[in-house]
Design goal:
There is one protein chain. By secondary structure, this protein is an alpha+beta fold. The chain folds into 2 domains: 263 residues, Bira Bifunctional Protein, Domain 2 (BirA Bifunctional Protein, domain 2, 2-Layer Sandwich); 126 residues, Rossmann fold, CATH 3.40.50. 41% of the residues lie in helices and 20% in strands. It is built from 17 helices and 18 strands. The protein has an 8-stranded mixed β-sheet with strand order 1-5-6-13-12-11-7-10. Helix 12 links the parallel strand 14 and strand 15. Helix 1 crosses helix 3, helix 4 packs antiparallel against helix 9 and helix 8 runs antiparallel to helix 9. The longest helix has 23 residues. The termini are far apart. Keywords: Aminoacyl-tRNA synthetase, ATP-binding, Cytoplasm, Ligase, Nucleotide-binding, Protein biosynthesis. It is found in: Cytoplasm. It is an enzyme of class 6 (ligase). Homodimer.
Length: 508
């Protein structure tokens, strides 16, 4: 075959690695969830703001351009005036740029929320995507820790608004300054010990996974895992390890606060951090949020090189089964803290800020585990079938469809090959349509329509085995005047809804 007669190569449809297509059920679940979150944020006096997907790369803060291209971690391109732009890595850095750029116009404290996609140019893996959604709330220009305490209370209220009952979640709170004080108190403060402190932080972060004994090894010489691989430790001595383990092992803050204050006494920031934790604890207790909802927990070490004060994490405490079939605690669904340095990068002056970010996909997974999403199931549309294809008949079918829509009922007129009526009912079945509307020539002459209850029909069809009995029963089918179409459809839909409610009550 010559080059000219060769068939053109078909383009292969392929989804980029690390990205997902979202179907109707997931989209509706996210919308349902974010609406409940938004309602809580609005109640606290936060307003929405939206920033673009792209920012100039240097504005992102964590990732600055190399001589010829930005660092790995962000998706970047150069625009026509040879400036590097990147897809946003999170929602906080764009907010910092927005505040700095509009600083003279906005009202401080600037209390905002926003939901949107963020992008990570990282190797994708199971449950690790390059595009995912976050839902953030931030307060910029509020220096006191009462704004941090309020953020924690708002997160607790959000968990409960989503149907997560008390005891299944906890908002855990720590303070960067306290940990800095502990590091200074054991002799690993200062710039010269930066890498060593990171090793200590990583060790503390493994507390849930390896327990006190494993963390103790990582704080000391190192730890060998089951495969024989060795992880080098922070090289702390026994006295240093004991002090770190005391700090992260605090479970009853009220009893340990005095000892903690003694540990960090004389350090530059430690005592200030303890005072801030005490203030947060007093504020949340005064507002009725006990340690079953908001808990001071020194083992929280999330992003401590980024935050400048209080840090907090929303953790779900119920068990789920992982890929290996093991029961594990679900864990974190969001976190945040005080980041007083981020807006200041643009301003040359201190601008206090605190915020919280929810991982939407992860939280949605948790809510599905709890059966808290999809309660308001979206009903498939009523199908108006097509028996005749002439213009007058099609106009009549369209009129039926619009009459249903005008009364708030989901409806669609069949758009495929109408000549094979069986295909229309198969389509209705695959769509999950609750009702089919049928009008042929005989019905049109009489000014009536057939209304077929497809849900009841499916149920009855399992009880009828004889064809003659089927024809005689006219399974779940009514004939009504055209003028009564909408009222009859609504009556059937309400009966179906009542059946679903009863079925749910039986299952519960």
């Amino acid at each position: 075959m010559s080059e000219k007669t060769k068939k053109p190569q078909k383009l292969k449809a392929r989804l980029p690695r690390g990205f997902v297509d979202r179907e109707a059920a997931d989209i509706r679940a996210v919308n349902e969830m974010t609406a409940k979150i938004r309602e809580v944020y609005e109640r606290y006096g936060f307003d929405p703001v939206e920033t673009p997907l792209f920012e100039y790369t240097d504005a992102l803060g964590k990732f600055l351009p190399d001589a010829d291209r930005p660092n790995e971690g962000v998706f970047s391109l150069m625009d026509d005036d040879e400036q590097w732009m990147s897809l946003r890595y999170d929602l906080t850095a764009p907010l910092a740029r927005h505040v700095a750029e509009n600083f003279n116009e906005i009202q401080l404290p600037y209390r905002t929320y926003r939901a949107g996609y963020v992008f990570r140019n990282e190797k994708p893996g199971p449950g690790r995507f390059r595009q995912f959604m976050q839902f953030d709330a931030d307060s910029v220009g509020a220096p006191g820790v009462q704004s941090d305490a309020e953020m924690c209370m708002m997160m607790a209220d959000t968990m409960e608004a989503l149907g997560i009952k008390r005891g299944d979640y906890v908002i855990r709170v720590n303070n960067r300054k306290v940990l800095d004080g502990v590091m200074e108190a054991i002799g690993v403060g200062g710039e010269e010990n930066f890498n060593r402190r990171l090793t200590v932080l990583r060790a503390i972060d493994k507390l849930d996974k390896f327990g006190t004994e494993g963390v103790s090894l990582l704080l000391g010489e190192g730890r060998k895992d089951e495969s024989g691989d060795f992880t080098k430790g922070a090289g702390l001595n026994a006295d240093q390890i004991e002090k770190v383990l005391f700090f992260v092992g605090i479970t009853d803050y009220a009893q340990s606060a005095v000892h903690l204050a003694e540990l960090v006494a004389g350090t530059e920031k430690g005592a200030e951090g303890v005072d801030e934790l005490n203030t947060i604890r007093s504020l949340v207790l005064g507002a009725g949020y006990g340690p079953d909802r908001i808990k001071i927990d020194p083992s929280v070490v999330r992003g401590l090189e980024y935050y400048t004060g209080p840090v907090y994490e929303a953790e779900l405490t119920f068990d789920v089964t992982n890929e290996k079939g093991e029961k594990v605690v679900f864990g974190s669904v969001g976190g945040g803290g005080r980041y007083d340095g981020l807006v200041s990068r643009f301003m040359g002056q201190p601008v206090p800020a605190t915020g919280f970010s929810i991982g939407v996909s992860r939280l949605m997974t948790a809510l599905k585990n709890l059966g808290k999403l999809g309660a308001d199931e979206v009903l498939a549309p009523v199908l108006v079938t097509v028996m005749d294809g002439d213009v007058e008949s099609m106009g009549r079918y369209q009129r039926f469809t619009q009459a249903l829509r005008n009364e708030g009922i989901r409806a669609e007129m069949y758009q495929g090959n109408w000549k094979k009526f069986g295909n229309q009912l198969k389509y209705a079945d695959r769509r999950g349509s609750p009702i089919a509307i049928i009008q042929g020539g005989d019905e049109r002459a009489q000014g009536v329509v057939q209304i077929k209850d497809l849900i009841e029909g499916k149920r009855l069809s399992g009880e009828i085995t004889d064809n003659a009995e089927w024809r005689e029963a006219r399974v779940a089918q009514d004939v009504v005047p055209e003028a009564e179409l909408v009222a009859k459809v609504r009556e059937i839909l309400e009966a179906q809804a009542e059946d679903r409610r009863r079925a749910k009550q039986v299952n519960v």
